[in-house]
Amino acid sequence: MLKLAVIGKDVSKSDSPKMHTFIANSTGREISYDAISIPEDKFDEWIDGVISRYDGFNVTIPYKLAVMPKLKTICDDAVLFGAVNTVKSADLVGYNTDGEGFMLMLKTNGIQVDGRRVLLLGAGGAGRAVAQKLVHGGAYVSVFDRNAEAAASLKQDCPAITVLSEVLPADYDMAINATGVGMHKTEGMSPVGEDVLSRVGVAVDLIYVPSKSAFLSIAESLGKPVVNGRAMLFYQAYYAQCIFFGVQPDEEEAQKLFSAYLNTLYS
Ligand code: NAP
Which atom of ligand 1 is nearest to 228's Cα? Predict the structure, then answer.
């Protein structure tokens, strides 16, 4: 049995225990999975205990960077993004599965990337991962962030993007909301309106609660296909669990597990 966990500042409402337990039960693996909320002033004190007590753990806000100095090796996308969301304790290796989760979400929704024009709103942690995977996949990515420094820093790491100083209506194959606007205190708000969304092919929001953000509702009212971020969240967990168990991920298995998981949520 593997002893697993998610760490973050407040993971009391995290979906990770539920998703990981579902994936493990469905694939015949044995795990325990804890949610460990760590106050920011306790991170340095507690992190070594987490590493020694757990076989592996997921990392969420705000510790995706803070955990890196504790690790011996940073792998694959974690190097590209400069952030870790999955740690295998035995070898002290850090990975990042957010980008793979995002790309599999697009693929399973039949959304093409290569050669497509993408409007990306938000260049924070998630926006950075998404931008770099899209560029790697051959997309032309235009990024707007109200925080000009965030967009400039992404441009430095990913020179192929175009940084926008404002969002004007233009033809895009896909618009992605990675700003967080539309959840919690901003529920009901959208970072862009009808003028922009009427010119996009498909609208993707990384938000999954609410399942239909204002950004997606506006796009849907204009007849656009819409995708929320729940599949991305599930697939990043799927890829993380494959890392914990040292097994090869299988896209078909991931997709079947996600459909079955959705049934448990809505039954
Ligand atoms: P973050 O680091 O706070 O980044 C958000 C960025 O968007 C910030 O730079 C922010 O600027 C900017 N922004 C805020 N409002 C904006 C607006 N109206 N127009 C343009 N830019 C704006 O957050 P994050 O961790 O990247 O997360 C972003 C979203 O992705 C959240 O909704 C999160 O829940 C979601 N997410 C989903 C998944 C998934 O698996 N589905 C995974 C990761 C994240 P300021 O600094 O000025 O606020």
Answer: 41
